[in-house]
Amino acid sequence: MRIVILKWLILTVAILVAAYIIEGIRISGFSHALLAAAVLGLLNALLKPLLIVLTLPINLLTLGLFTFVINAFLLKMTTGVISGFEVQGFWAAILGAIVISIVNWALSIIIPDRGQRW
């Protein structure tokens, strides 16, 4: 359970960093970032595998770069659910998806979760 909460907080920090760096992403506060991370995490868990399979040919042609478009689409879907979270435009969503992926990856490297108990 702690690992899930830790990953949720890491995604929240990644969303806050993206909102700080990219002009087209706005977040009203930390509570909205927590909600956005929860919704984005659910969308990533439920919808992303299906979208990856459906777009496999184009993903292979672009050597996996189309995954960022899928992530941007899921990020834009999150804005429809959370009222205090806003992504304006396609390029802001693409850049936000890239920043969130990089920050999420970096924080996951720093904070290991190899099944160890706290």
Mean pLDDT over the full residue set: 91
Shape: globular
Strand order of the largest sheet: 1-2
Sketch the major β-sheet.
2 strands, antiparallel
SSE string: HEHHHHEH
Give the strand content: 5-15%
- Assembly status: single chain
Report on this structure.
The chain is mainly alpha-helical and 118 residues long. It has one domain. It is built from six helices and two strands; from the N terminus they run αβααααβα. The protein has helices at residues 2-21, 30-46, 48-54, 56-61, 66-81, 90-110, and strands at 25-27, 85-87. It has a two-stranded antiparallel sheet with strand order 1-2. Helix 1 crosses helix 6 (90-110), helix 2 (30-46) packs across helix 5 and helix 5 (66-81) crosses helix 6 (90-110). The relative contact order is 0.19.
List strands and helices in order, with pairings.
Elements (H helix, E strand, L loop, with lengths): L1 H20 L3 E3 L2 H17 L1 H7 L1 H6 L4 H16 L3 E3 L2 H21 L8
Antiparallel strand pairs: 1-2
Helix pairs in contact: 1-2, 1-6, 2-5, 5-6
Highlighted features:
118 residues; mainly alpha; two-stranded antiparallel sheet; 6 helices; 5% strand; globular
Give a quick rundown of the structure.
This protein is mostly helical. The protein is built from six helices and two strands.
